[in-house]
Design a protein that fits this description.
With 491 residues, this protein is mostly helical. It has 20 helices and 2 strands.
């Protein structure tokens, strides 16, 4: 008989190890919504225009989308902990840039660096897969994946409190301090994975993906302001139509692609990424609409005239629910499979939007509906990486989870454009001002419910567990060595 393969040594203090990575994820996710309460005041504070101020959100979306899959692949090849530290260093540098300046150009550049750190979440998931024993992988990955939603829910009320009571630079100084703390904790507690993918980094593929993503996302996020038929928007969309096929053809021919399109085209991976995009859309509608809806003046007939702080606090119960439900999602995935967990999550989100559709005049019921949607999001975000890890080789974990995180970001970008278009066009005059009608908000709820329902259908079409791919979590478990081989060694 061949000698038994020893189980991987469990890292010291695994709870603290997981907690450090989850804390890093929350800090990075908070950066995505940090400036939202500040946006109406940015033109006066910086002497800029509202259009320029909107780039403080747009640029984080663009850099996060570009760098998440690129840094995920770099982590697979050069060391996940090393790239994680680089990402946290970039976040800290961006925070300091924003903290020391009131110039809109410097602020946009700093926010771009903050957005690039979104790769911390898929990198953390990959480290957990490599380093933790089998029993701890699912609950730990569930918590790490949920930080994307937890941070977004916590970031709005915290940022609103800072904007209302302190100098606005304070929140950037605080984020810089948190970035330094993250770096110190990772250095002290997180081990470097010995697993590496062989080959040469696909620089051409990274540039091609970056160009194609920027073309698509810039057209989506700026199309409403520029005009959907304006020359810049049409030029970007035309560039995207040309770039995506060229990039795909190159990736299929290169020996070490940035994104293995053959793996990504498998139904188990493709449908999971489609579901991630739709879940990202449905989740972001909840965050965007709740804060704005409760701030609408009472003269509209439906608004509650709430302050920025109160509107942000409406999302806090949802953030707490996400923390509580991530281990529940892991238990569902362990008992019935991540496909079942994702289907339950999408169904809960549909129910949440039905509740929101019929309870839009009462603050407690608005909070309840928003919390139900957030609860579904928590279970979904926890199940998605489990589905990805079940379907991809170990050596591609970082890149595959980065691509899945990217799809959530694309969904959020599409949601932002759709919500802005609906609220800007379904309006009425009240008190001498133009405001969205109640039907505009209800239409957003219906669209978001439709996205969640489509995610449910995509999930139901996922193939069953079947035979895991070589090097995937399932194959590694069957071999008795969870997550310990590279894709090349599996081959």
């Amino acid at each position: 008989m061949p000698p038994a393969i020893p189980a991987p040594a469990e890292p010291s203090r695994p709870r603290f190890f997981v907690g450090v990575l989850a804390f890093c994820g929350v800090v990075v996710a908070v950066m995505q919504t940090l400036v939202v309460p500040l946006l109406p005041h940015v033109p006066a504070l910086t002497g800029s225009t509202p259009a320029a101020a909107s780039w403080l959100v747009t640029v984080t979306l663009l850099t996060g989308a570009v760098f998440t899959p690129v840094l995920g692949r770099a982590g697979d090849m050069y060391g996940k902990r090393r790239v994680l530290l680089v990402s946290l260093g970039v976040l800290t540098a961006g925070s300091v840039m924003c903290a020391v300046s009131s110039h809109i150009g410097v602020l946009i550049a700093g926010r771009g660096l903050q957005g690039a750190a979104l790769a911390v979440i898929p990198l953390g998931i990959s480290i957990m897969r490599d380093e933790l024993p089998p029993a701890k992988v699912l609950p730990s990955v569930a918590l790490m994946s949920s930080t994307l939603g937890i941070g977004a829910a916590i970031g709005l009320p915290v940022a609103a409190l800072v904007v209302e009571h302190f100098d606005w630079h304070t929140m950037f100084w605080a984020s810089a301090v948190l970035g330094v703390l993250d770096i110190a904790l990772v250095l002290a507690c997180v081990p470097e994975s010995p697993l590496r993918s062989r080959g040469r980094f696909d620089a051409v593929g990274a540039l091609g993906l970056s160009a194609a993503l920027v073309a698509v996302l810039l057209a989506i996020t700026q199309g409403a302001d520029w005009g959907w038929t304006s020359p810049p928007t049409l030029a970007l969309l035309g560039a995207a139509v040309v770039l995506w096929p060229l990039w795909g053809a190159y990736e299929l021919r290169t020996r070490s692609p940035l994104v293995d399109l053959r793996v990504s085209a498998r139904p188990a991976v493709l449908l999971t990424n489609v579901a991630a995009l739709l879940i990202g859309f449905a989740f972001y509608a909840n965050s965007l609409v709740t804060a704005q809806m409760v701030q609408e003046p009472r003269s509209t007939g439906y608004g509650l005239g709430a302050s920025i702080v109160v509107s942000g606090l409406c999302l806090l119960p949802g953030g707490l629910a996400m923390v509580a439900l991530s281990p529940v999602s892991a238990k569902i995935s362990a008992a019935y499979g991540p496909k079942t967990a994702l289907a339950i999550a999408a169904a809960i989100m549909v129910v949440g939007y039905v509740v929101r559709f019929f309870t839009s005049h009462s603050l407690p019921l608005i909070i309840a509906g928003a919390t139900v949607v957030a609860s579904g999001t928590a279970i979904a975000y926890s199940a998605l990486p489990a589905l990805v890890m079940r379907a991809v080789p170990v050596g591609e974990t970082g890149a595959a989870n980065g691509l899945n995180t990217l799809m959530r970001s694309v969904g959020q970008a599409c949601c932002s454009a759709v919500v802005a278009a609906v609220l800007a066009n379904v309006t009425f005059r009240v008190g001498g001002q133009t405001a969205p009608t109640l039907h505009a908000y209800l239409l957003v709820f219906l669209i978001a419910a439709g996205a969640a329902l489509a995610a449910l259908l995509a999930t139901l079409c996922l193939p069953g567990p079947g035979t895991p791919v070589s090097g995937s979590v399932g194959a590694d478990r069957a071999a008795g060595a969870p997550g310990r081989t590279t894709a090349e060694e599996s081959a």
